[in-house]
Write a structure and sequence with these properties.
two-stranded antiparallel ribbon, 13 helices, globular, about 350 residues, mainly alpha
Length: about 350
């Protein structure tokens, strides 16, 4: 919205700053951060009044989690509020990539809110049906995939880029749509699985958002893509504003989610943020690189898949408990140690993912 202040500029004054993505990204970050600090405590107090018992705790979970009984959930609403306000304020609203990501974010956020509401109101960890969640998620992802194919230049549409290999694109044709849907829905649910310890999910989400923001900015500038020998996706640079707004909102939330958490993110936040990250990966044509950057989420999801598959085949468990962060809890590692080490791994993987920009 503030971008339109450039209409008042003569090219050499303050209003000209709003033309620059980097300036507006910084504004989005600060706005989102201030929003989180300003509304965090009022939201916590409101949710405490509305959620008398807080988020239900799994009876078969680690014993340390029972001390968290009564902690309110749906804290993702704080991040989403900060993210939406900042993005609408600082991003170019004539950029369709922004609207696609906002659509995915709000859509998955609505699914998560319904799931959290069901859990809290019924005091049951089951929430809404998994089939309903997945069905609605794939529907939202299909719309995003169709939009991505429409927005991408003709030479990139329905293609998948290979990292490291110079300008190598694999034509997927119609298979691009189920592929993109799996990336978006898979990421949303992987982040949801990761959100099991205080602060565990939000920091890797912010790290991944920073990496994807850099990728979006790079592939959205023709001079950068020529230097780096990567594909040019005009318009995606604006997603850097969204990513910085996400990081600001995430930091504001982490202030209250740091151990011991005063509020949980809930599915409202984890599904929305995961869906957004998956959508950005698809829009920037970095779906394969995303497997590296989002490696923590991939590992969490794979641990659940392996556990379920092996238990059904043999009746035995590979991990003491899945997702894998619970395995480490069962082995006696302190929660704070697990969380910080996961943060370190997420940072290393993000740096490796970014390195693929130059390694050609």
């Amino acid at each position: 919205m503030l971008y339109w202040l450039t209409l008042l500029s003569d090219g050499g004054d303050f209003f000209n700053l709003f033309r620059y993505i980097t300036f507006r990204a910084g504004g989005a970050f600060l706005t989102s951060l201030i929003f989180g600090f300003a509304f965090g405590r009022p939201l916590i107090n409101l949710l405490k009044r509305r959620q008398s018992h807080g988020q239900p705790i799994r009876e078969d979970g680690p014993e340390s989690h029972f001390s968290k009984v009564g902690t309110p959930t749906m804290g993702g609403a704080l991040i989403l509020g900060a993210l939406l306000v900042s993005t609408l304020l600082w991003a170019r609203l004539d950029n369709m990539y922004i609207w696609v990501v906002l659509f995915v974010t709000v859509g998955f956020g609505a699914i998560g809110f319904a799931d959290d509401y069901s859990k809290v109101s019924k005091q049951n960890v089951a929430g809404i049906s998994g089939r309903i969640r997945l069905g609605l998620g794939f529907l939202i992802a299909l719309v995003a995939a169709l939009a991505a194919a429409k927005l991408h230049p003709e030479g990139l549409s329905e293609q998948v880029a290979m990292p490291i290999l110079k300008n190598t694109l694999v034509p997927f044709g119609l298979l691009f749509f189920p592929f993109a849907m799996i990336v978006i829905v898979g990421t949303a649910n992987a982040v949801n699985l990761t959100d099991g310890l205080d602060g565990l999910a939000i920091m890797p989400v912010m790290i991944a958002a920073a990496a994807l923001g850099v990728l979006a900015y790079a592939v959205g500038r023709v001079d950068f893509t020529q230097y780096l020998d990567v594909h040019y996706v005009p318009g995606t640079g604006e997603l850097f504003v969204f990513c910085m707004a996400l990081i600001g909102g995430g930091l504001g939330f982490l202030w209250y989610n740091a151990p011991p958490a005063a509020i949980f993110m809930g599915d409202t936040g984890s599904l929305a943020l995961g869906g957004a990250l998956g959508a950005i990966a698809v829009l920037t044509k970095h779906e394969i690189v995303w497997l590296i950057i989002g490696g923590v989420f991939v590992a969490e999801a794979l641990s659940v898949i392996i556990q379920v598959f092996w238990f059904k085949r043999t009746g035995k468990r590979v991990f003491l408990m899945a997702p894998i962060h619970h395995h480490f809890e069962k082995k006696g590692y302190p929660e704070s140690q697990i969380v910080i080490r996961f943060w370190i791994v997420a940072l290393v993987l993000a740096m490796i993912g970014l390195a693929t920009l130059k390694v050609r």
